[in-house]
């Protein structure tokens, strides 16, 4: 900090972020975000502003946290309605302070109204990330009335002045998540978001911005993301003068939060980073941050799981699950997950949700005999649950019809024959927590697959009022409370987040879970596109992927077993087919592929990821992983379809020291890092026909000083599981 000028420099491992506190103007102005520079230079940098005329907002695009009021015409980060119905805010800077753990706070308040807001900045040690959030407090008394927060963004990120701005994001739908698109940023406001009460399949709460010429491993990239699991909105603004900024917040238009006198609201965290080394470096920086600062158990290896859903659907029983568990154990699975259909009066998706006791006809002895047999077979025991939902045909709904999201004088909409329980209500989260604690304890459950199979409708409140839609923010916070308390009660418990596939994926849910179900689409070819989009921000160690039957139950595509495994081995490997129908040859091949995955798992789950060939770039898709110490390299190559044309060029690897030598573990051929990254690696011969794939394993001939990456014991894979 330079006290005289009010300049603050935030340094990350590879970038600098500069802001300036202007006490006279009552604002915090943005100065620089980009390559590193010294504080002495930062103090001298000017702040850009629009031409001074009566039609321009001289603060637009250059404030750290713009509010409504004064000559400001861009989208505000803060918009309020005071008790008298007025909205303009007039800010005054109270002070700024550096706290412990590289944490900066700037305190502002309204000049005469009872509202204060604090802007928080934090730079986690050793990384490239900046964390930002805001906190609002009603500083008045009962005589001042309530204040409504109409817009309450976590952060506003001004960008440097460039031309040719391009916006990157993912879009899609159920079973078609993660479609990556980069397109010219339009002048005006471009809004991405979700009104569904969860992050959604249709978009994900992050965007990247680049000056139009950035590639996978070169050029400037600015990426911002939101660590929140409810509805959300990201607004990218571009003016005709090429002033660009991104505002990130929870909720959407109309999601108003009421502040009574003395009450505060703290936003979720927004993450931001800059790199000069392309989209690949940006992705690896996010992966590293999530592993080092977000995930509860980042050093654990995720187990190979078997899930029974596609084999038995709702028709589960103790006998057929034990039969599947025996086959799964023979393949080498380490975790067996009993999916939907095990509870209440669950015969199909029309009944039973909310009644979390074993189905009396299917599990007359309860779940303990199945769990004990699973453990005797050498696997941990997992269970599917959907605690945020209820069927109208359930004992829970008949007892508590008022617990659902609804507006009393409107018809409650059913989707997938179910309704949403209102997790913004303490009595609902108390019930959920007590129910789950009992369930986990009775069957000694090691793993929960936590599902969420429909979006919000009729998202009102218990009492009508102007902040009735706050459930779009507060439901997710109720969910966080349940997850936090449950994990505190059962430290050995591991959880997979699922929302009909990838409908709730964000850094907020990842702080409380260990992996996510990437998509309900298990087609191995479709998954290459889905996983490519997923990897832009999220690491392979949280990307759950299954091998299922062929033809695929969703798409009908027939795919060889090896290709299906290679596709799923790019993340956290699981198996979900009907093993009782697999041939002996298929089960033997699967067992060998699982052994191979366990060998490469430390590299895939904990290594650096390089996207060598994207699915849309040509006939081949390829991804590379490099171990933390650089001693091992794994490359996966897929050719979804054949076609006439020349042989592809050698595959140029990345991230290898040029002087090192690497041996192919299968062929014994040796090449230098310089050759592998400069000339490239000749592609192995792929099997003829469509859906061909290959796995290459390289090992450094003379390992570096780092400890070798080995395979831990089963108990290290899943604490609480069998030794």
What do the pLDDT scores average to?
94
Terminal Cα span: 53 Å
Low-confidence stretches: 705-716, 719-723
Count of helical regions: 14
The total beta strand count reads: 36
Structure notes:
The protein is globular and about 80 Å long. The longest helix has 23 residues, at 584-606. Strands 5, 6, 7, 8, 11, 12, 14, 15, 19 and 20 form a 10-stranded antiparallel β-sheet that branches. The chain is an alpha+beta fold and 723 residues long. The protein contains 14 helices and 36 strands. A hairpin with a 7-residue loop joins strand 31 (608-613) and strand 32 (621-626). Residues 705-716 and 719-723 have low confidence and may be disordered. Helices cover 20% and strands 28% of the residues.
Short précis:
Helix content is 20%, strand content 28%.
Summarize the SSE layout with pairings.
Elements: E1 7-11, E2 16-22, E3 27-34, H1 39-44, E4 78-81, E5 91-99, E6 103-110, E7 115-122, E8 130-138, E9 147-152, E10 155-158, E11 166-171, E12 179-184, E13 188-194, E14 206-210, E15 221-227, E16 232-238, E17 244-250, E18 257-259, E19 264-266, E20 269-275, H2 278-294, E21 305-307, H3 309-312, H4 318-331, E22 335-338, H5 368-376, E23 380-385, E24 389-390, H6 395-399, E25 419-420, H7 426-443, E26 447-450, H8 471-489, E27 494-497, H9 507-510, E28 515-517, H10 524-534, E29 543-547, H11 561-568, E30 572-575, H12 584-606, E31 608-613, E32 621-626, E33 632-639, E34 661-664, E35 670-672, H13 673-678, E36 692-700, H14 714-717
Parallel strand pairs: 21-22, 21-30, 22-23, 23-26, 26-27, 27-28, 28-29, 29-30
Antiparallel strand pairs: 1-2, 2-3, 4-9, 5-6, 6-7, 7-8, 8-19, 8-20, 9-18, 10-17, 11-12, 11-14, 13-16, 14-15, 15-20, 16-17, 24-25, 31-32, 32-33, 33-36, 34-35, 34-36
């Amino acid at each position: 900090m330079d006290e005289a000028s009010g300049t603050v420099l935030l340094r990350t491992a590879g970038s600098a972020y500069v802001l300036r506190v202007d006490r006279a103007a009552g604002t915090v102005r943005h100065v620089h975000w980009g390559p590193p520079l010294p504080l002495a230079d930062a103090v001298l940098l000017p702040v850009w502003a629009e031409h001074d005329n009566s039609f321009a907002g001289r603060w637009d695009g250059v404030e750290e946290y713009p509010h409504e009021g004064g000559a400001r015409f861009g989208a505000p980060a803060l918009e309020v309605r005071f008790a008298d119905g007025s909205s303009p805010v007039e800010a005054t800077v109270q002070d700024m302070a550096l706290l412990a753990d590289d944490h900066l706070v700037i305190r502002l308040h309204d000049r005469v109204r009872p509202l204060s807001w604090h802007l928080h900045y934090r730079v986690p040690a050793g990384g490239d990330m900046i964390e930002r959030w805001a906190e609002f407090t009603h500083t008045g008394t009962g005589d001042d009335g309530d204040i409504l927060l109409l817009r309450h963004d976590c952060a506003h990120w001004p960008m440097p002045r460039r031309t040719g701005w391009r916006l990157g994001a993912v879009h899609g739908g159920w079973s078609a998540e993660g479609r990556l698109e980069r397109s010219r940023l339009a002048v005006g406001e471009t809004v991405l978001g979700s009104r569904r009460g969860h992050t959604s399949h249709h978009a994900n709460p992050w965007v990247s911005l680049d000056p139009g010429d950035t590639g996978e491993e070169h050029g400037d990239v600015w990426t911002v993301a939101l660590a929140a699991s409810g509805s959300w909105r990201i607004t990218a603004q571009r003016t005709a003068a090429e002033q660009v900024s991104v505002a990130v917040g929870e909720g959407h238009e109309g999601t108003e939060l009421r502040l009574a006198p003395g009450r505060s609201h703290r936003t979720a965290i927004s993450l931001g980073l800059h790199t000069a080394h392309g989209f690949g470096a940006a992705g690896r920086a996010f992966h590293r941050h999530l592993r080092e600062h977000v995930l509860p158990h980042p050093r654990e290896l995720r187990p190979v799981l078997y899930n029974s859903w596609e084999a038995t659907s709702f028709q589960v029983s103790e006998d057929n699950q034990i039969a599947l568990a025996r086959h799964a154990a023979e393949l080498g699975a380490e975790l067996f997950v009993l999916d939907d259909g095990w509870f209440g009066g669950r015969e199909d998706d029309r009944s039973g949700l909310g009644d979390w006791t074993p189905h009396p006809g299917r599990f007359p002895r309860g779940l303990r005999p199945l769990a004990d047999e699973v453990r005797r077979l050498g696997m941990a025991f997992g269970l599917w649950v959907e605690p945020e939902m209820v069927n109208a045909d359930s004992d829970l709904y008949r007892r508590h019809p008022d617990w659902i999201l609804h507006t009393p004088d409107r018809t409650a909409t059913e989707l997938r024959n179910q309704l949403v329980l209102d997790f913004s209500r303490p009595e609902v989260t108390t019930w959920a927590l007590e129910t789950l604690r009992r369930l986990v304890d009775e069957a000694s459950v090691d793993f929960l697959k936590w599902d969420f199979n429909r979006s919000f409708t009729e998202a009102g409140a218990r009492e009508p009022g102007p902040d009735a839609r706050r459930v779009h923010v507060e439901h997710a916070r109720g969910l966080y409370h349940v997850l936090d308390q449950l994990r505190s009660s059962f430290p050995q418990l591991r959880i997979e987040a699922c929302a009909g596939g990838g409908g709730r994926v964000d850094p907020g849910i990842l702080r409380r879970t260990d992996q996510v179900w990437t998509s309900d689409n298990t087609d191995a070819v479709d998954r290459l596109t889905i996983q490519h989009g997923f990897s832009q921000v999220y690491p392979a160690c949280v990307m759950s992927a299954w091998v299922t039957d062929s033809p695929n139950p969703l798409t009908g595509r027939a795919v060889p077993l090896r290709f299906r495994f290679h596709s799923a081995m790019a993340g956290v490997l699981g198996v979900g087919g009907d093993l009782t129908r697999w041939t002996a040859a298929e089960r033997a091949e699967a067992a060998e592929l699982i052994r191979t995955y366990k060998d490469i798992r430390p590299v895939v789950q904990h290594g650096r990821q390089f996207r060598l060939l994207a699915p849309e770039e040509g006939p081949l898709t390829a991804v590379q992983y490099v171990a933390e110490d650089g001693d091992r390299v794994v490359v996966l190559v897929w050719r979804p379809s054949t076609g006439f044309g020349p042989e592809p060029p050698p595959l140029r690897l990345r991230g290898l020291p040029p002087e090192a030598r690497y041996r192919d573990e299968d062929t014994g051929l040796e090449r230098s890092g310089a050759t592998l990254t400069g000339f490239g690696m000749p592609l192995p011969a792929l099997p003829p026909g469509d859906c061909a794939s290959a796995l290459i394993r390289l090992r450094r001939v003379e390992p570096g000083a780092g400890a070798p990456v080995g395979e831990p014991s089963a108990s290290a894979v899943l604490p609480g599981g069998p030794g």
